[in-house]
Amino acid sequence: MIAYLELAKELLERFKEYRIVQVPGEENEQVDSLAKLASATINIWPRTISMIRLLQPSIVTLKEVGAVFGERDSWITPIKENLINDVLPSDLLEAKRLKYRSTRYSVLNGELYKRGYSRALQRCVGPEEAEGILRSIHSGNCGNHAGGVSLAHKTLRQGFYWPTLFADAKRVAARYEACQKIANNIRQPPELL
């Protein structure tokens, strides 16, 4: 998303003059209520969603360098130690579990990566870095103040992973009061009248 933001800024420089106005959700009640009303009605037409799978990014960017955080003993440490140095816990059951879990991970340039469902590598992060990533995706430059599950899926698409991702994303999204006020308020009864 940051690459698209940079491209948009670059394209805006070609205009002689322009004005960008952001209207907060609290001040945009009429449009918000129309959108909620439209999403609450039952559509009689079949809904089709076309999906295009990009094999490579549509914007070519330079490789970004992330900040390196000191790694305390987190969930990453035992897996990384097993993959690099073949170190296993003394407990046989725990060693078997770790050996099985480690098959889904790889170490590249000292960083731990997990193979996702599409076989794409997702960088594994610790709890300290995870909090910053969630806040950045939720309310950063390209943030859209998404709900918990949507925020978690967006984080996965950005190439990050940690075991408590979905719970952490719900907690971060619930922390913002403005997001709770703008959330969908469906007025349809749960069953037919």
UniProtKB/TrEMBL annotation:
Residues 127-182 form the Integrase zinc-binding domain. Gene3D superfamilies: 1.10.340.70, Ribonuclease H-like superfamily/Ribonuclease H. It comes from the Eukaryota. One of its GO terms (molecular function) is nucleic acid binding. InterPro entries: Integrase_H2C2, RNaseH_sf. This is Integrase zinc-binding domain-containing protein. It comes from Acer saccharum (Sugar maple).
